[in-house]
Design goal:
The protein is 44% helix and 19% strand. It starts with 8 loop residues before the first helix and ends with a strand. The chain is built from 6 helices and 3 strands, in the order αβααβαααβ. Strands 1-3-2 form a 3-stranded antiparallel β-sheet, sandwiched between helices.
Length: 170
């Protein structure tokens, strides 16, 4: 019997559905993010608007019962749910084109674009409903973040996690 009652509801549902719809011996994979922004060289610091925003975003998400960093838990959730041969990998997701590596530079460009284009979309509801901010306050925050992440000296990134495992035969 699966025990997923302590998991966030969306995760518990996914795991239960995977068990129902995966044949014994079949493989499943989860891919999700850890939205905690960091930098490999210390160029993103706590005083940056982007880091303050990130901390508040994670806090507001958790207050809304949304796990903003589920990637950190994928391997454990799969093990707890009874999958076997669980493996986990972690990948860098840069914010911007600062990496020297060609592949990471491209990933960073796409990630930069999705942040620039979607910032209000994933901020307004959380910040106005859960943090009590006004629309104008959110707009100022978004403008400050856009300004900061355009700075090539700031090497922000977060991580993408992949975990996969096999449903037991019996």
């Amino acid at each position: 019997m699966l025990r997923v009652s302590s998991y966030p509801p969306a995760i518990a549902l996914r795991i239960l559905n995977l068990h129902r719809h995966t044949r014994p011996g079949g493989w499943v994979e989860f891919i999700d993010l850890d939205l905690t922004w960091t930098s490999p060289d210390g160029s993103l610091v706590e005083s940056h608007a982007s880091k303050k925003f990130n901390n508040e975003f994670i806090r507001a998400s958790r207050e809304a019962n949304i796990e903003a960093c589920p990637g950190l838990y994928l391997e454990g959730w799969m093990n707890d749910a009874g999958f076997k041969d669980v493996k986990a990998e972690k990948f860098v997701w840069p914010v911007g084109t600062w990496p020297k590596d060609k592949h990471l530079k491209e990933v960073g460009a796409w990630n930069f674009l999705q942040i620039m284009e979607g910032l209000e979309g994933f901020t307004y509801a959380l910040f106005t409903r859960n943090l009590g901010m006004s629309k104008a306050e959110v707009e100022v925050i978004c403008a400050n973040i856009r300004k900061e992440i355009k700075n090539p000296a700031m090497h922000a990134m977060f991580h993408l996690h992949v975990a996969y495992g096999q449903k037991p035969e019996a």
